[in-house]
Structure prediction request, 662 residues.
Amino acid sequence: MLGPGLSWLIGTVLVTVFFAIGAWQRRWIADDGLIVLRTIRNLLAGNGPVFNAGERVEANTSTAWTYLLWFFSWVTGAGSDANGTGDGHLEYVALWVALVLSVAAIPIAMYGTARLYGDRWLSARGRAAAGVTLLLPLGSIVYISLPPARDFATSGLENGLVIFWIACLWCLFLAWSRRDPERTDWRARTAFLGLSFVAGLAPLIRPEITVLGGLVLLVLFCAPIGWKLRVSMVVVAAVVPVGYQIFRMGYYAILVPNPAIAKDASGSKWGQGFTYLDNLFSPYILLLPVILAILVGVVLAVTGPRRSSHDPEQIDPHDHIADDIPDILEPVDSSPRRFAARWIDFQARLQQPSTVVITILVAGVLLTLYWLRQGGDFMHGRVLLAPLFILLLPVMVVPATIPATARTAVSRWRLAAAAFIILCVGGTVWWGAAVSQKVLSQAPMDISRNGIVDERRFYVANMAIENPVTAKDYLEYPRMRAMVEKINELHGTGGIILPSGNYDEWYVARLRGGLPAGQKDKTTVYFLNLGMTGMNAPLDVRVVDQMGLAYPLAAHTERLKDGRIGHDKNLPTAWVIAESGGVSGGPGLPAYVESIDVREANVALTCPATQARFSSYKGVWSFARFRHNLRQSFEFNSYRISRTPEYEILRCGLKPVTDRPQ
Prediction:
């Protein structure tokens, strides 16, 4: 007979298989997904965790994703030709790791939600009613039906790792809530510390996901666990992220990954954020299944069994919980006693599934608000997938109990609730089938006025390749083949390669004489699409971008007020010519660049604070440099310059160039 276990298994297998098939059909590696692979090539080549050899810049937002891909690349030998431009092996490592993590996240999340309802809920509603209880997929269907969810199941970006980590944390957090609070054996303590360790990894998964990990750790810290275990929890949770943060400050000389500075994560664009939210909800009528999921959640909350709370008066003063209340047994006045009693009661209520659900929902709401404040992203749906996944966790699967009889009022109420849940699941399946292949109404090669684009569709249309995976596939993108040819032309002489309006031609700014040995024949490519450029260029070619993802000079400029979201920094060409050692005039300077701008940029670069920032990531790394970077990382994190060389000279108090035309 079909029961909760079998129904869960069938639903989970179907949802997972459909998601895996859909993700594979839409497999690809995004241009941004190629960025991390350049860092891995440098790691495997012995240049360190950098994007350009000799420049300590953290160009990847997810630290865990970088080192996870590095590990599998090293194990499989995919990066054995790391010094070259690659043969596609690294791209397939990224593809498969992302795909496996994304697909695995779905059954893990569904298993955790099945445990949320647990034997107590199922027995109270199923076996006691002599009927049958089904565990049906709901939230999982909502997630896998969204085309962006399947797009970013591969893509080379860290989305798969993020939802996999969320699903694992969900399961571990629920397991803790169902564990007997009186258990103090080594297995219970090990499981508790394991949960703390996983939650503590949050800032390395993605910086903003620390909201979820931090809330989970706060709940664990406040639980009645005794101070010894509490201290152990803090140490276990902090050892990896704090250790890496110290390394980041000493090695990269900033507090956050460089893309966070390039995109100015401290800014706010609420209007653009709601536009981004609408860009995800409107095309797929996503509000419909969200409302159905909320209604089902309300029905389950109302009809679910109640758990008796711990009575503070029943606590044994010799129990470990008494470690947190040494004053309650002493003669004190009524006010502190009432506070202590309430605190004990609060602690006793923490270790239960309802606390887990509330914590998860609060984290999902906060993350959604964070991205609305940030203005979302330029990739359709991408950054809202994790908050949506979190908010759907409590209803990934839902129980529907069909009573054996409808003779009593209670059984009729249960039958009505089950019928409503089944109808909502059916409606969600119908919705998923209707929208699963839907695309945005705009032309695939157009970037809308709001700056948001269906990233996968954009590149597929531009390159006429259904599944672009390797860097070689991206040679079909405008300018890429011409760039490779230009790099080969400049081998041995060096120069600064700049994009032109002609897709088959690049400009070159020549290097000036008298440069240091390591710079006199250096080739630099200056282009927006950092991933495809970096992966199609040898490691001895420097690749930098106008936005500053891998270029601190651009990252430290002020954010453009009305710039395209995710691209709202744009360093003028004169800066990179001056900083890379290019000529400031004559036939070696492209005609569209004004000589005065390059000369002013050369002066602006002499600003002491800017020179100190250059030294922090270009200077020889030593213990003295590490110590110096630790101290200055706070200052560098907030350091900003004007993007106009003339204004930067004034800001820094330097001597202006006197021959600027008036």
